[in-house]
Amino acid sequence: MTKKITKFMMPVIFFLLLVVAIYFSSDQQFCDAARDHGLNPKPFYKLDVSWPNLPELFTGQVFAVAVNPVNGVIYVAQRGDNVPKVLVFTREGYFLQAWNTSSIEMPHGIFIANASSNPSIWITDVGNGKYGHTIKQYTPSGELIQVLGSAGKAGTDVNPLQFDQPAEIFVHSSGEVYIVDGDGGLNNRLIKLSKDLEVVWMHGEKGTGPAQFYIPHSVAVDSFERVWVADRGNKRIQAFNAVTGDWLGSWSSCFDNAPYSVRLTPDQKYFIVAQLNINQITILEAPPVGAIGYCKIVSVIQLGEDVKPHLVDLDLKTGDLYVAEIGAQQAQKFIPIYT
Prior knowledge:
Oligomer: single chain
Strand content: 35-45%
Number of helices: 2
Helix content: under 10%
């Protein structure tokens, strides 16, 4: 009888020990994130199925999207042979124009600077042809203003500035510029430029340690002067002081799969992170000023199989979320419903 009871109780004892081990795990924040993710999902967004009015205009692989919150104009960058590299829509989904420029080879990231006064559109180009390895500034109608980097030539220099597959650019309201370079090329760098486009500071070492990168893929700056980088190859997000460049910390426990993008909601309370490999948009709680602490997942948007969300942007006026999706070859709009 004793043997039968012991045999019966072994699985129960094993289960209880497993629960205790998990509970006292050194990374309790990972357990918190998993619990929020799996057992208490709070919906933050709903899909706007009517946006845009003419989805058939997407004829290439959609890699990036940028929103001008002042006039409600959305710019969508796509790749492919004989396709317009940029499509322009209104906030309501009406098509405005297409850029049929030949100066863009393979757009990767797109960003709108000076939205309220003199807007311009910055595009990172990861192409290998005569226009690639550059970051270009355009007027809202698609006229080229200037080019950063050595067109058609990959490099590592900072004087003159060179890139190899630059992933994304973020232009702060101060005019200062933050660049992550590159998308699998020679460089693994975070570069800050002054408003005069001079190098202020840089982190540029490949590796897994603090302030090192492996395929830095997206960059954003919050209202507390912190720079956030989606360190794709290392499956983490790193934070830096925007003024000094000092490393502030990193988040890795929330990411079994690589984060591809990082943006903040208009109220600066949450991060929106695209994870291409699992077709998911992850919403994280943003830390207040001070120590960045541990990451905490508060909600997710699970997309369909092979949608492959790449980069995202938010309308800072309405809070609407726009997602550029490579696999589905489309951009989608999600409306906030959280309070």
